[in-house]
Amino acid sequence: MNRDGNNKSFWESTINNDLPKSQVNTDYDTIIVGAGITGVTLAKELQSRGRSCLLIEKENPGFGTTGGTTSHLNNFFDSSYDEIIDNFGEEQAILLADAAKETIRYVKQNVLQYHISCDYSECNHYLFSVDDKQTKQLDKILEAHGKVGIPTEQTYTIPFDLEFKKAIEIKGQAQFHPLRYINKLLKEYTKQGGAIVTETQVTDIENKDGRITVKTNTDSVYTSNNLVWATHIPPGNNRFSVLLAPYRSYVATLKLDNPVKTMAQTADLYDPYHYVRYHKSNDDYYLIVGGFDHKTGDENDTEKPFEDLMEYVNENFKYKEVAARWSSQYYLSADGLPYIGKMPGEENIYISTGFSGNGITFGTMTSLVIPDLLDNRETELSKLLSPSRIKPVASARNVINEVVSASVHFVKDKFVSDKIAELEEISNGEGKIIKHDGKTYAAYRDAKSQLHLLSPVCPHTGCNVTWNPSEISWDCPCHGSRFDIEGKLLNGPAMSGLEKIEEVE
Fold it and tell me: Most-buried pick from 52, 221, 402, 451 (CB within 10 A)?
């Protein structure tokens, strides 16, 4: 099993790549693109409801953010309920809180029904402040939780060795091994007749007369009545290039010397915040610690967030060894809630995107929304999360900021490059955007001194990529597309890779 980065996640190192076989036809009721938590859960739900489904995955299941998640399953979100109440109203906040609780129940039901061995555990979350400003914020969150019915109370101790000024205990959380979970769901999905193709990239779609034709890089062509983009961000150049902002978060998994008395999660209220949880796998106990988020492409030295993370870890925790460390990408939406439902302007194309740091919860919640829409049932939840919604007060400032950020990168990165006279000055293991004889290249020299040259222009909207030395990838700072050293597409919204340059004149 692989994922979209050089660093191996804890989940990758603790799973076998035993994927089910399936009979693949050419015509389906629904095609789902992307086999992460969103696509797999949705495909299984739709197949259970009698719809014939095909899952198309560019690499392998869990290749994207699902393979790099910290797998928190929460009944609260990065956008706190006081913010949601301010932006959408108390009634809508209650609706979302109920959906979050139903999502956790839905996962537990799957675990029990299909006997999924995925380290599933239920726990509470401890949110805390460290100063007066954060305490005021925490008080607002506590009050809002009372309004929306999330069981929360003040606590004077937390099961982590962290100093705090005030803390609240939020009950009803869960966590699990994401890859073991989706792989078992895949087996159940194929048992029910569902089909999956992997290592297959969608290169083009045509939507005509209510029928969708999907073309792929394997020359296979599939048709369907409906299409769902479960690709973390819908591909191509559309409104969601502006409404979504790509970020990276950094994670370390630490093996502990001693057992943990109780599973638990915690986070502070810094921006970006630190998040911590315990995990038990077999007879071993772990601490998963994350944070130091930044906008994709804005950090030149992507080893520094890891250094900062380990400094935070060493200052606050005792552990036996570092079991894994990695980074992963997520997308912030303009108004704080995900976009789940019909693609604007389309009747039979659906999307699920903008999960912020709550991908496991919102990815799963997709199966509480899209199946009803496919059955022509519009619910209050689907109205709240509709991709066509417009919330000017909540989103205008964020949209403007992202447009400005993308524009700055588009202009600046076209004209700024390292002043390297010759390609030979690039060291082994180093990647740089360089000018050579008046032309600009994305250049990387591998451990064997072989030079890999690519066009630096992202095929999505034409921004220049930047080098990510930690994940050994070229990342687009405008909309989050990512590519490997050969130019192969790792993450959209681009639908093709970077142009490969065979030789320099």
Answer: 402
Q: What is the pLDDT of residues 67-117, one digit of tens each?
A: 999 999 999 999 999 999 999 999 999 999 999 999 999 999 999 999 999
CB neighbour class for 137 (10 Å; exposed up to 12, middle 13-18, buried from 19): middle
Per-residue confidence (pLDDT) for residue 393, from 0 to 100: 47
460 neighbors 410 (Cβ within 8 angstroms): no
Q: What is the pLDDT of residue 117?
A: 96
Cis peptide before 20 (omega within 30 of 0): no
State how far the Cα of 368 lies from the Cα of 346, in Å rounded to an integer: 20
Alpha helices by DSSP H, listed for 71-223, are 81-88, 90-113, 132-148, 178-191
Kindly state the DSSP code that residue 355 receives in the 8-state scheme: -
* pLDDT surpassing 60 at residue 131: yes
For residue 422, the model assigns a pLDDT of: 52
Mean pLDDT in residue range 201-225 = 96
- Per the CB < 8 A criterion, the answer to whether 275 and 266 are in contact is yes
Please give the share of the chain, as a percent, with pLDDT higher than 70: 92
Sequence-separated (6 or more) residues with CB below 8 Å from residue 253: 10, 279, 286, 287, 288, 289, 322, 323, 324, 325
Q: Quick one: which H or E segment has residue 307?
A: helix 304-316
Average pLDDT, the chain: 90
Sign for the CA dihedral angle at 463, 469, 470, 471 comes to positive
In angstroms, the CA 55 to CA 451 distance is 36
Beta strands in 133-201 (DSSP E): 152-155, 166-175, 195-197
Query: What single-letter DSSP state applies at residue 258?
Result: S
Distance from first CA to last CA of the chain, Å, rounded? 39
Residue 476 to residue 413: CA distance in whole angstroms:
10
Q: 253 and 308 in contact (C-beta within 8 Å)?
A: no
User: Minimal CA–CA distance to 330: which of 53, 37, 108?
Assistant: 37
Q: Is the pLDDT of residue 125 over 90?
A: yes
Question: With contact defined as beta carbons under 8 Å apart, do 49 and 377 qualify?
Answer: no
3-class DSSP state of 288: strand
Is pTM beyond 0.90? Reply is no
pLDDT of 29 reads 98
Helix (H/G/I), strand (E/B), else coil: 167: strand
Tell me the β-bridge partners of 227.
31, 349
- 49 CB neighbour count, 10 Å cutoff: 11
3-state secondary structure of 72: strand
Residue 391's pLDDT is what?
A: 65
**For residue 316, which phi and psi values (nearest 5 degrees)?**
-120, -15
Mean pLDDT of 187-194: 96
